[in-house]
Amino acid sequence: MKDISKELGISITTISFIVNKKAENKISKEVIKKVEDYIEKVGYKPNSSAQSLRTGKSKSIVFMVEDISDPFFSAIAKQMEEIAFRNGYNIIYCSTENDRERTLELISLFKDRQVDAFIITPPENFEKDLKNLIYEEHQTVMVFDRYFKNFKHNYVILENFEGAQKAVTGFYESGRRNIAFIGIHSELSPLVERHEGYLNSIGAYNLAAYELFLKFNEVKTPAGMSAIRNFLKGNPGIDSILFATNNLAITGLRVMREKKIKIPEDLAIISFDERDVFELYSPPISVIAQPISELAKELINGTLEILASKKEKKYFFTKALPGELIVRESLRPVKKLSSNP
User: Fold this and answer.
1) What is the distance between the alpha carbons of residues 235 and 60, in angstroms, rounded to a whole number?
2) Domains of the chain
3) Domain HTH lacI-type spans what residues (predicted)?
4) What confidence tens digit (pLDDT) does each residue in 60-81 have?
């Protein structure tokens, strides 16, 4: 800016206003045009590191999820990125692998880089760390996909309890009466609430519950397949399965193909979270689909609103969006409804 000032004979303060888009109603249009034309001619760009040191803002937001390669999270990231870019922000992506220590290390790294906000899907056992990040370190944090009931914070989530109810109702109305649930051992709110929604509906229909829970790190492994294989063998009467995550469903479908289990004749299937493979699978798999576009918009717009807000700290941005039951061939009704209640 000193070079521009010397070349054009205009004060550094005036040039700073123009470069940082704060010149409106302060500096004449002629001067603004003169400076902008010269900047374009010489290809000047502000030094982002210097700006960050001066303003305390890096114009960057971190999106921390358990696995950024998961199609659900990557789709959310893509749509957020476009909105953030239009508002002058960049999104940084990283994966926590649902590991607390890894998450803490990443947060420490990004705090050193003065990121403006964190959008986080918290890993297991992260409640105290998150509370400290918000209330003691005064970081701007938006929690995604899960939340904690013991303290107030910003979040955007799916209505998981209601989603599980829709799935069980879908099974029941298609004639199924022996409905199983396969989930993950976890205290994370979406997994807990999907299980609770299942139990609530099973109880309302006066049906027996059939349940299997895997460890998080078993889902995509031979151990996970073995557990599902044994579950099916030990419960030959079940006629339908609600999978709590798409990765669980994919593991389960591998077992069913191996065992030559017919879908939906032998087992009807519904999975939480859409994947392209579910629509392309033969037969196509029914899902409780999350509203990706709406979630992405609420996440990034809510975060930007918080960053720009001058409201008191007791204000929190909270959204819970409904999922949609997409019925495909895996939920085709049985020919004859069971005579059981």
Assistant:
1) 51
2) 1-46 (1.10.260), 57-158+292-323 (3.40.50.2300), 159-289+326-331 (3.40.50.2300)
3) 1-55
4) 999 999 999 988 999 999 999 9
